[in-house]
Design brief:
InterPro entries: Kinase-like_dom_sf (IPR011009), MONaKA_PX (IPR037903), Prot_kinase_dom (IPR000719), PX_dom (IPR001683), PX_dom_sf (IPR036871), SortingNexin/PXDomain-PKLike (IPR051837), WH2_dom (IPR003124)
Number of strands: 10
Number of helices: 17
Largest sheet: 5 strands, antiparallel
Distance between the termini: 170 Å
Shape: elongated
Strand content: 5-15%
Membrane topology: Peripheral membrane protein
Oligomer: single chain
Family: Belongs to the protein kinase superfamily.
Keywords: Actin-binding, Cell membrane, Cytoplasm, Membrane
Radius of gyration: 47 Å
Structural class: alpha+beta
Strand order of the largest sheet: 4-5-6-8-7
Subcellular location: Cell membrane; Cytoplasm
């Protein structure tokens, strides 16, 4: 087959879902106009960054009412006006790079990263389709379906079979992605096997083939469109941005539709998980409507290694580290969209608007709240047992059939593990970057600055006191050393001995004899006479 023979050169295995951030660094005047220099960064690594400068191509985006700053004919080179306009342009960039749909559109990617997105993928797709038609002449292109999908490297064409001119089909061509871990042989076999899959909630594949760099899949075209088309009341053939970026009316589905569609989608996820077939690409535009039945699209995406539509969301949470967990998280987004008619503003969701049933909110809380994202996703089997879905009766009696050979099943298992490993590594880098950013933000807060100022003052006072004490000690030491250098004074003459005040003591025997002699020789006549005046008698005057 000619399609299998010649892959295009220069294939890039780049993850297009990794967010690009843009920061205006400077401005310069060039020929009476101002050019702004923008620093663009892919992901969390500052090493993966570059500069761009031309804003004009971004102003072509008309899908949203964006906050463009006003222009000025006179005085547009004044410093104040340039500074004010730079602030406005930065706000414009922030809106584009944080909007989930706009940030993934080709126009934005080509502006922010012109080197990675310089290839014309529509021309490459046409080359492949032309080579395919050489070996399969029964097919014929009716018209290209421009930009009906969100992927830059995936293109669509409306087809027909020559001998069945009224029947319409859709051909999709896709380049291989960064999560392609199957060998070329296993990939080709697995893609061809998809057309043999039969399940009431999987959309039928008419034809599928792959080579070393891309794949081509043909399916029946549905005039009714996808579940996303139903929610947004859009026409299936319109461009993705026009259909979903700025809906005129926001309205969720009826409760019974939510219950039935949700149950059908959970049943097919359970089937794929039990088969060991990796999916990871659930969103409302990948669910085709066939009457009142939901049917899953794009089973080939995981085989081709394409990144998920919601990857920039679940890569922020380390507990969502398996493809089964990814499917459940994506189901939470889809259920929110079916309920409220729009995607959630932020993840995690802090509070939910009023819903048709409290059972809807209980399912959403088990998937999209902060607590759920910290603890991990519930299993599909648990969701099926919750009151919102447990009482839904499924009327379709078609028996599912999808036989996967043992060798291919083992290859799919290894591929799934590799996909999960790359996700885990990316989550680890994001987690480390978030911790570093949080620490830097805390360090630069006003409260921390005040604390550091107080500590610096205390430290300076303490060091001043210590230096003062040290100076005094040095001064004292210098005085002592100066005194020791003076010649010593001559010694004073010795003082005369002080007279003794001690009573001379004699021996005890001599003292006793003297006392006895004094008593014996005592003479009463030697005593002097004294006169006594008696005043004790009473006086009478």
């Amino acid at each position: 087959m000619a399609f299998m023979e010649k892959p295009p050169a220069g294939k890039v295995l780049l993850d297009d879902t990794v967010p690009l951030t843009a920061q205006i660094e400077a401005s310069q005047s060039l020929h009476s106009h101002t050019e702004y220099i923008i620093r663009v960064q892919r992901g969390v690594s500052t090493e993966n960054s570059w500069q761009v400068s031309n804003f004009s191509s971004l102003f072509k985006i008309s899908a949203l009412s964006l906050p463009l700053p006003p222009k000025k004919l006179i005085g547009n080179m004044e410093r104040e006006f340039i500074a004010e306009r730079q602030k406005g342009l930065q706000a414009y960039l922030d809106v584009i790079t944080t909007h989930h749909i706009l940030s993934n559109c080709e126009l934005v990617k080509k502006f922010l990263d012109p080197n990675s997105y310089s290839v014309n993928y529509t021309e490459i797709a046409l080359q492949h389709v032309s080579m395919f038609f050489r070996s399969e002449p029964k097919w014929e292109v009716v018209e290209p379906l421009k930009d009906i999908g969100w992927r830059i490297r995936k293109k669509y064409f409306l087809m027909k079979i020559k001998n069945q001119p009224k029947e319409r089909l859709v051909l999709s061509w896709a380049d291989l992605g960064p999560d392609k871990y199957l060998s070329d042989r296993d990939l080709q076999y697995a893609v061809k096997l998809l057309s043999s899959c039969s399940h009431p909630y999987i959309y039928k594949i008419t034809f599928a083939t792959a080579n070393e760099s891309s794949a081509l899949v043909i399916r029946p075209f549905s005039e009714k469109g996808t579940l996303k088309d139903l929610i947004y009341k859009a026409k299936p053939k319109d461009p993705f941005l026009k259909k979903y970026c700025n809906p005129k009316k926001i309205q969720g589905l009826e409760l019974q539709q939510i219950k039935t569609y949700g149950r059908q989608i959970l049943e097919v996820l359970k089937f794929l998980h039990e088969k060991g077939f990796p999916y990871g690409h659930l969103h409302s535009a990948n669910v085709m409507l066939d009457g009142d039945t939901c049917k899953l699209l794009d089973l080939e995406n995981s085989l081709l290694g394409l990144p998920s539509f919601y990857r920039s969301y679940f890569s922020q949470f380390r507990k969502i580290n398996t493809l089964e967990g990814v499917d459940v998280h994506c189901f939470g987004h889809l259920l929110y969209e079916m309920t409220y008619g729009r995607p959630p503003d932020t993840i995690p969701v802090e509070s939910f608007p009023p819903a048709p049933s409290v059972f809807v909110v209980s399912v959403l809380e088990s998937i999209l709240t902060c607590e759920a994202l910290k603890n991990g996703m519930p299993a599909v089997s648990r969701l099926l047992q919750m009151p919102l879905f447990s009482d839904v009766l499924l009327t379709n009696s078609e028996k599912p059939q999808f036989k996967i050979p043992t060798k291919l099943k083992e290859a799919l298992k290894i591929s799934k593990e590799c996909i999960e490993k790359r996700l885990t590594e990316e989550q680890k880098l994001i987690h480390q970057h978030r911790r570093l950013t949080r620490a830097q933000s805390h360090h630069g807060s006003e409260e921390e600055k005040k604390k550091r100022k107080i500590l610096a003052r205390k430290k300076s006072k303490r060091s001043a006191n210590e230096s003062g004490e040290e100076h005094s000690a040095k001064y004292s030491n210098s005085n002592n050393s100066g005194a020791s250098s003076i010649p010593p004074a001559p010694p004073l003459p010795p003082a005369a001995p002080a007279p003794s005040t001690e009573v001379p003591t004699s021996r005890p025997d001599a003292s006793r004899g003297a006392l006895l002699s004094s008593i014996q020789n005592f003479q009463k006549g030697t005593l002097k006479k004294t006169q006594t005046c008696d005043y004790s008698a009473p006086r009478i005057s």
